Amino acid sequence: MQWLLRRCIRCGRYTLRRDRCPVCGGPLRVPHPPRFSPDDRFIKYRYLMKKKAGLIPD
Ligand SMILES: [Zn+2]
């Protein structure tokens, strides 16, 4: 899923536009970029299960 929401740095409003804030014309940035893909979570989950099972030493 693509992250579409942007937040204006100047006035703090959220928008779906990519270029400029529709309210004040300020610059936009992505407020909360997704850190992990589902694949990454799956890999971490498998790692934790292996560690719990004693397959990976501390
Ligand atoms: Zn704005």
Description:
- This protein has 58 residues and is of the alpha+beta class.
- It has a single domain, classed as Rubrerythrin, domain 2 (Single Sheet).
- The chain has 1 helix and 3 strands, in the order E-E-E-H.
- It has one helix at 38-52; strands spanning 6-8, 14-15, 28-29.
- It is rod-shaped, with a radius of gyration of 19 Å.
- The two termini are 35 Å apart.
- Bound molecules: zinc ion.
- Zinc ion binds at residues 8, 10-11, 13, 21, 23-24, 26.
* The CATH C-level class name: Mainly Beta
Largest sheet: spatial strand order: 2-1-3
- The whole-angstrom Rg is 19 Å
Share of β-strand residues: 5-15%
Q: What small molecules are bound in this structure?
A: zinc ion
- Which second-level CATH architecture applies? Single Sheet
CATH topology-level fold name: Rubrerythrin, domain 2
In which range does the helix fraction lie? 25-40%
Class computed from helices, strands and strand pairing: alpha+beta
- How many domains? The number is 1
Topology:
Elements: E1 6-8, E2 14-15, E3 28-29, H1 38-52
Antiparallel strand pairs: 1-2, 1-3
The structure holds zinc ion.
Zinc ion binds at residues 8, 10-11, 13, 21, 23-24, 26.
Summarize the structure.
By secondary structure, the chain is α+β, with helices and mostly antiparallel strands. It is built from one helix and three strands, in the order E-E-E-H. The chain is rod-shaped, with a radius of gyration of 19 Å.
